[in-house]
Amino acid sequence: MAIYIDEKTKVLVQGITGNQGAFHTKQMLAYGTRVVAGTSPGKGGQEVEGVPVFDTAEEAVEARGANASVIFVPAAFAKDTIFDAIDNGIKTVVAITEGIPVHDAMEIMAFARAHEAVVIGPNTFGVISPGKCKIGIMPNQIYAPGKVGVVARSGTLSYEIAASLTQAGLGQTTVVGMGGDRVVGLSFIDVLKRFQADPETEGVVLIGEIGGRAEEEAAEYIKGMTKPVVAYLAGKAAPPGKRMGHAGAIIERGRGTFDSKVKALEAGGAAVADLPWQVPELLKGRLASAKAGGGETAATRNGNGHGEAGKKKGKK
Amino acid sequence: MAIYIDEKTKVLVQGITGNQGAFHTKQMLAYGTRVVAGTSPGKGGQEVEGVPVFDTAEEAVEARGANASVIFVPAAFAKDTIFDAIDNGIKTVVAITEGIPVHDAMEIMAFARAHEAVVIGPNTFGVISPGKCKIGIMPNQIYAPGKVGVVARSGTLSYEIAASLTQAGLGQTTVVGMGGDRVVGLSFIDVLKRFQADPETEGVVLIGEIGGRAEEEAAEYIKGMTKPVVAYLAGKAAPPGKRMGHAGAIIERGRGTFDSKVKALEAGGAAVADLPWQVPELLKGRLASAKAGGGETAATRNGNGHGEAGKKKGKK
Amino acid sequence: MKLYEYLAKEILGKSGIPTPPGRVAMNPDEVAAVAAEIGAPVAIKAQILAGGRGKAGGIRFADHPEQARAVAKEMFGADLKGFKIDRLLVEKKLKIENELYVGVAVDGAAKLPLLIASAQGGMSIEEVPEKAIVKRPIDITWGLYPYTAREVVRRLGLTGTPAKKVAEVLVKLYRVFRAYDAELVEINPLIIAAGEGPGKEEVIAADARLNVDDYALFRHKELPVIDEGTALEKKVKAIGLAYVELDGDIAVMANGAGMAMATLDILSRYGGRPANFLDAGGGASVEPTAQAIDVLVATKPKAILINIFGGITRCDDVAKAILWVKQNRGIPVPLVVRLVGTNEAEGVRLLQEAGLNAYRSLDEAAAKVVAAAGGAK
Amino acid sequence: MKLYEYLAKEILGKSGIPTPPGRVAMNPDEVAAVAAEIGAPVAIKAQILAGGRGKAGGIRFADHPEQARAVAKEMFGADLKGFKIDRLLVEKKLKIENELYVGVAVDGAAKLPLLIASAQGGMSIEEVPEKAIVKRPIDITWGLYPYTAREVVRRLGLTGTPAKKVAEVLVKLYRVFRAYDAELVEINPLIIAAGEGPGKEEVIAADARLNVDDYALFRHKELPVIDEGTALEKKVKAIGLAYVELDGDIAVMANGAGMAMATLDILSRYGGRPANFLDAGGGASVEPTAQAIDVLVATKPKAILINIFGGITRCDDVAKAILWVKQNRGIPVPLVVRLVGTNEAEGVRLLQEAGLNAYRSLDEAAAKVVAAAGGAK
């Protein structure tokens, strides 16, 4: 199994006639994603990469049974487009678009909540269940099917780590990009809950960064998880008070520092890797001891993972 | 049992310091209603008829456990006041206020829907479960506890008929005023469903009027009811195209005529009285035959009630 | 409150919906001047607060300013559907490709705004077959978004530039509906004009109606006050009560619309003919009630029936109002009063002290007043 | 985008929130003129886009226009918290009874607007103890209604006229927050002035901050353009990318904020000191990427590291951008490129053809660039 999307997911590409929309439609099709329809107001009747284009999500859902949507429209039109998808019954929306006004994002999340839909992003690289379905802009070649769930705030950093997992023989159930904007649809906890409930996922990689309180909150949830969690955090060397590109990645008033996050995650029972390419080794250790230890929760374990890989220490 | 309100209902009077609010607080208390609190922004700390006044519904709910509210504030403030009640957990709001803008009413109903609250009114005389609780502005002396449910669009006309029921020995479980505005919280069907489900209610009186399609829609529902329904409709002599005071009471394009409503209701199995004071007699006949006939639905009966009382015909 | 076409168009125009070039004119010279200014041929349209104006001859055309003046002279002062023409809207005559209907109304049953559209515009929407009408309830919490407008225009069979422009009009029309507390805003016809060729089509509001919720006028001080109805109806409206003129000889006051209608029904049953009815409403105090009775007396009926079942209205207040009119103005015709409900005892006592009788039974009161007015007709 | 205090107050004032009489002035004469116009004593407030201005001496007072001119002469051109003072807001000095804090901000975790208020205004809200702060998330679907404002002012311990007026300010403040796509709007202090006695208290926004969401500026053409940051930061922002200046000697470009931060972390681990970082973002095409590299070269670093894991960004585009800069401007310092992901093969081929090497391993690339910049420090 996978979370959010799988081989049955029928994808609608909204904004399919734009450069990015068309390029990634091709990439998604090449990956094997069932891209069934696209929308582009005023361009209904055209085709992109063999995919039929409609004026409205309504037609795309009626004619092609789309049940997930990916958004490539410009930021100014994103709210209308996402509303279109959700109002027509689509329950999973992946918003790639960057630069969506934060008030629009708040309204989008309220609309999604009222309609019990999930919005992944905005400003996300997407979500991929390797071998089954890819919705997003991540490279096709770095993933492999397997047992590890990955959740990340940042795109390229997650590619780096996903590629190292794959290289180490650790395939993925699903890799989820939460998105880099201040207001996004998913929290770490939302995704961790899904991985915890997914029978195929055996371990989880959490890729966070400085700023905000999301990692600290996730740490609380991790305490009750029965599956091992390995984290990597970016921003150790970032100076306080500077916004580091992502909306949230700024250290303010002692909150959201690298150290506070590492401390919280380790207290929650997660292992924290020093370098991206140490994640696979750390996770292998954790998976092995989880198998040995049965269904104990992270909080009952006393392993402190920070530096484990670097120091080449075994599991206590 | 009663519907919407009963002896456990703890009433908050919003706009308690105004003339109408204070007068009807006194009347409700005299009836035995548990009026536990009032609100009037800026007047918190005062008392009206011994009832403590608060600035906010929040305090009234916290301090006094109010679980229903009645609205006497001027129309311009009604939306804010009703939102206040509902947002603080009150699930039954009786809006007496006349003249609420229809856009405000639409927003009130959307807010109530989102919060699973019931709004009775606006522009209603209220709701009364005789002997248990009265929330509204109806005279205290005309009701009696009993087995008949009454639902009406219009206030004074319902008083007329309730008084005649009481006089005839037919007490009431609950009398509900839907309100005379174009947008109100309850439909006939909403209330009929409650009466149908209420074990103590044995028969129902529906007091309608020309205009709109509410009576025709109710007639469809009545077909499936196991309890007898007697209707009285106002507006037989009203000329088409003139708005008769109530927002809805206008006959337009052949819709909502007296004859179409009578026809629909009779087809649904309801008896329709010619004059208000014929209602009790008609209902007694229906109740007697319902008792004899058991749980059959109105649609399976073939009684056509129109003029029954006038013509002194017995039940077929 | 209904707005004149030209005012409705001003509002639509400000909201970004294209309207024809033109202006209202109050006399024939002004009509000619506007025609000269915007360039003939022009349409000259009577500004009255009623529909079906076109069929009744309320829209005429002129090919040059002088002809416009002549046409205007014929129109000013003429009677149209019961209204005297006192203002004309002079507009550029349009080349029509296609006529649509678009409107937003309050749907009482759904408790939501209802977007209504049809490809068969130009006639009253009531005459359009149901299957040619697209209806779409709008979630008032969220409003009307472009995607919904696109769904609607698709159902209308529009494509290309007209589809895009009509969808934009729908979004703006809904904004007007909300911003102006409208009960109804409609554009009929919304015309599609050829423009400068394919892809350059223009969409223009050729006629418009905007009815604002009377209850919401307190927050629309920007709007002019437009009074509808007869002089008496206006007078009673100013008191804050509802009044309807009928064609009989018994003046009727009751409290509550349902009760007022039932009172008419019962009078009819006894062969009486109501002259009017006045809904004293809920909780009117002494002074407006007295003013209302005064209005009834002024209609010179053969008899007056006052039927009050007191709830929020108090019987003693009604009695006081009756006595005030009786003492200060006099009531020259038979007055039958039926008084029950809140503060009934006090009200009856006050009337009795002044030598007036009050009935408890409406049946009896109705029979009595019909007899007083000369019996069944 | 941060607005100057005087612009924020203009907007609050237009929205019905009382602000002190006053105006911005661009030179000492103008300061004296405003002081004469509104009447001394006045407050003279440096307009800079940073907080903590009061403590740093950015607010001074004058008892008459000439003193105001003298004070202004001292202030203009002075450096305050890294900003050069080029405009002063001259306002009537207020008699303060009480200072509150009120603000509305975006709460990322709750995905909702957050109303924040405290009876302890006048200092930075970060310094106010948590228990003295009232926080109330607002359902963006419905907005902030007066009843919510009343609940908040009750928690602040206000009663009477101040309670009523502060509640009104909260409702208006939320409207500004929404209407201007604010990330943050705050009034600190919101002062309560005695006015003409009990019940006549006045509530006035003594200082104001309004930060508008950069992403929403496209729909706020009514706002002036205010550029923050250093010249280089502005230049990169104009290209549409994110740039942060640091104090080392290795210029860094990476794509994606997380990757950029991780790159700095890894450089640090090898003892390297980043001079800056530039987030090439997602999907930047050849031209902006070339401009970005050009910016890095202009910072005169000892070495440059470009770290790209291509997703929406295509490796071949990055390679083309590098080659364009190399050919047209020249790259005078060691350049280390790490290139993997979308269109990697094509990108690597292009670089190789031009005699440049691309690494697959970030570890290796980081070690290489630190060495090129002179080794660990």
Descriptive terms for the model:
heterotetramer; A: 316 residues; alpha/beta; Rossmann fold; seven-stranded mixed beta sheet; 14 strands; 21% strand; globular; C: 377 residues; alpha+beta; D-amino Acid Aminotransferase, Chain A, domain 1; seven-stranded antiparallel beta sheet; six-stranded mixed beta sheet; 35% helix
What this model shows, in words?
The complex is a heterotetramer, with 2 copies of chain A (316 residues) and 2 copies of chain C (377 residues). Chain A is α/β, with parallel strands linked by helices. Chain A has 2 domains: 1-123, Rossmann fold (3-Layer(aba) Sandwich); 139-316, Succinyl-CoA synthetase domains (Rossmann fold). Chain A is 34% helix and 21% strand. In chain A, strands 3-4-2-1-5-6-7 form a 7-stranded mixed β-sheet, with helices on both faces. A 7-stranded mixed β-sheet of chain A has the order 9-8-11-10-12-13-14, sandwiched between helices. In chain A, helix 7 (214-222) packs parallel to helix 8 (258-267). In chain A, 63% of the residues are buried. The model of chain A is unreliable at 302-316 (pLDDT under 50). In chain C, the strands form 4 sheets. In chain C, strands 1, 8, 9, 10, 11, 12 and 13 form a 7-stranded antiparallel β-sheet that branches. Chain C has a 6-stranded mixed β-sheet with strand order 14-16-15-17-18-19, sandwiched between helices. A 4-stranded antiparallel β-sheet of chain C has the order 2-7-3-4, with helices on one face. Chain C is an alpha+beta fold. Chain C is built from 11 helices and 19 strands. The relative contact order of chain C is 0.09. Chains in contact: A-C, A-D, B-C, B-D. At the B-C interface, helix 1, helix 4 and helix 5 of B face helix 7, strand 16 and strand 17 of C.
